[in-house]
Design brief:
Keywords: Membrane, Transmembrane, Transmembrane helix. The protein has about 140 residues and is mostly helical. Helices cover about 85% and strands about 0% of the residues. It has helices at about 1-20, 25-45, 50-80, 85-95, 100-135. Helix 1 runs antiparallel to helix 2 (about 25-45). About 45% of the residues are buried.
Length: about 140
């Protein structure tokens, strides 16, 4: 659990900084943070928990803080761009008029979607990395 809290803090800061570039960059960062968290959690919990379970618990502890940081980074970047610029880009891309309020609503929905996706990737890769580290590291308790 402690490893998950540490990697959650690291992930929150990294997620914020990387997500200033966009939600897709935050998704890539979630994969790296999840892998690192799961591997370290399995090593820290060796002898007490199986690797996959240690990675799962570590990832579940780290995911909320990472998602919060990544979402805050994305929102900070969007505030700099502005809703009217987003609306203009969407209008040009879709070929129909999109108001600033509609663009902001669509943006918030996309942030929520990417938050769920980032959490799933982080937790899934954390469990997989924990299982990998557990198999590689030797015998595990029954």
């Amino acid at each position: 659990m402690r490893v998950g809290m540490i990697w959650g803090g690291v992930g929150g800061v990294v997620g914020f900084l990387v997500s200033l570039l966009g939600s897709l960059a935050g998704l890539v960062a979630a994969a790296f943070i999840g892998f690192s968290c799961g591997r370290r959690a399995a090593e820290a919990e060796r002898g007490r928990r199986k690797g996959a379970l240690a990675g799962l618990v570590g990832g579940a502890m780290a995911a909320p803080v990472f998602v919060l940081g990544a979402s805050a980074g994305t929102l900070a970047a969007a505030r700099q761009i502005g809703a009217s610029a987003m609306a203009q880009s969407l209008s040009d891309w879709m070929g129909m008029e999109v108001s600033a309020e509609q663009a902001w609503d669509l943006f918030l929905v996309s942030v929520a979607f990417f938050a769920l996706l980032q959490a799933a990737v982080l937790i899934g890769l954390s469990a997989a990395a924990g299982a990998w580290a557990g198999r590689r590291g030797g015998p595990q308790p029954p």
